[in-house]
Amino acid sequence: MYEEKSLEVNRVIFLLDVLITSLAFMFSIWMRKYLVSGGNADFFSHMALLPLVLLLIICFLSYFGAYEGPCHAKLFNYGIATIQSVALGIGALLTLLFILKIDYISRTVIFSFAAIETFFIFGIRVVVKRYHKTCVLQEKTSRRVIVIGTGERAKELSHNLKKQSEWGIEIIGHLDPDRTRVGTTVAGAPVIGTIDDIEKILKSNVVDEVIIAITRSMLADAEPIALACEQEGIKLRFMADLFNLEVARTKLVTLGSLPILSMEPVAQDELKLLIKRTLDLIITLALLPVALPLLAIIAIAIKIDSHGPIFFIQDRVGLRKRLIPMLKFRSMYEDAEQRLKDIEHLNEAEGPIFKIKNDPRVTKVGKFLRKTSLDELPQLFNVLLGQMSLVGPRPMSIRDVDLFDKGIQRKRFSVKPGMTCLWQISGRSNLPFSKWLELDLQYIENWSLLLDLKILLKTFPAVFLSRGAV
Question: Could you say which of 8, 91, 247, 312 would form a disulfide bridge with 330 (CB–CB 3.0 to 4.6 Å)?
Answer without folding.
Answer: 312
